[in-house]
Amino acid sequence: MAKILVTGGTGFIGSHTVVELQKKGFEVVIVDNLSNSNIDVLLGIEKITGIRPAFENIDCVDYVSMDRMFEKHNNIEAIIHFAASKAVGESVEKPLHYYRNNLVSLINLLQLMPIHKVKNFVFSSSCTVYGQPDVLPVTENAPIKFAMSPYGNTKQIGEEIIRDTIHANPCYQSIILRYFNPIGAHASAEIGELPNGVPNNLLPFVTQTAIGLRKQLQVYGNDYNTPDGSCIRDYIHVVDLAKAHVIAVQRMLTGQAGCRVETFNLGTGRGLSVLEIIETFEKVNGVKVPYKIVARREGDIEKVWADPTYANNVLGWTATETLEETLRSSWVWEQNLAKRSKAE
Ligand code: UD1
């Protein structure tokens, strides 16, 4: 079975994708510098699949080490590139770190592809490229808006770099996946989201508040032009997202992708407000999430949710997990983490 390089494979989406790849029989090589993840994730993957993936502790910005890695693990047939910094607020404070980390790593991989005869590339992009869309749900043809942060800009520029590179090398192909808001955890609770320090994203903050690690969740604004005043997003189970990557790889390896770039939205097609998420989380898990409404967070978009029709039709992929199941899996994962840290 084909060998797949997964950069950022010990991260949140990366680790769930490795599990789905291994379940389908793919051989996986993970490259990760563990800057925002933990080596124990490999154990979690092994517990679920029975296979410990090959692992290289390398920063993708390091061209020479990446070159050696391709030599060592020869015959890699596709790359799924997750490795990137992703905190929107931090990117405003450290723009050069974001441009260097997210763009140099991408350029290195694209340069190394022809040298090591790798023709297939999957890129982690984001709904952030749409900014605040004029029309909802948002399709892949919606205009790309001015990026609200250096992080968002790295995704926009990254997509452009890929399009130009594939255009210049017509025997290569790429699938760009624009994620909406991934949440949840593997049903086994062996892997999940492991943010370093204070979480930026909603769900880890919700679960950490529910378990008592944080006193109170802050809801950023209830004066938006939405039914309950809080922001609306399209929350998608990380396992649904992971499965789309496997389909993307299969599509390229079986020659269905054509030698070009294809771009897909990965979302459920359903928009939910922050307050709806909190309420549903409390209901399905029978636990309280103390929260207070505070001022809007700078850079937040009022509302965005996906039109996933193109991915449904072309990839034959649909998000299938219910919101209830997704929020339950987040809570089971947080409780499992608490048990583990008590045992240590
Ligand atoms: C953003 C980007 C996304 C990117 C992600 C990376 C957009 C539309 N989305 O997601 O592309 O991949 O960051 O981190 O730009 N919230 C609270 N309290 C909290 C945390 C969040 O109320 O403590 C609210 C936010 O205001 C927002 C929602 O929860 O309305 C989701 O926030 P978050 O999980 O941070 O994701 P995005 O900002 O949507």
Quickly list its features:
344 residues; alpha/beta; two-stranded parallel sheet; 11 helices; 41% helix; binds uridine-diphosphate-N-acetylglucosamine
List the helices and strands and how they pair.
Blueprint (H helix, E strand, L loop, with lengths): L2 E5 L4 H12 L3 E5 L9 H9 L4 E3 L6 H10 L3 E6 L6 H6 L1 H21 L4 E7 L23 H19 L4 E7 L1 E3 L18 H9 L6 E4 L11 E2 L1 E3 H16 L7 E6 L5 E2 H12 L5 E4 L14 H7 L7 H21 L1
Parallel strand pairs: 1-2, 1-4, 2-3, 4-5, 5-6, 6-11, 7-10, 8-13
Antiparallel strand pairs: 9-12
Helix pairs in contact: 1-2, 1-8, 3-5, 5-6, 9-11
The structure holds uridine-diphosphate-N-acetylglucosamine.
Question: Can you give me a brief rundown of this structure?
Answer:
This protein is of the alpha/beta class and 344 residues long.
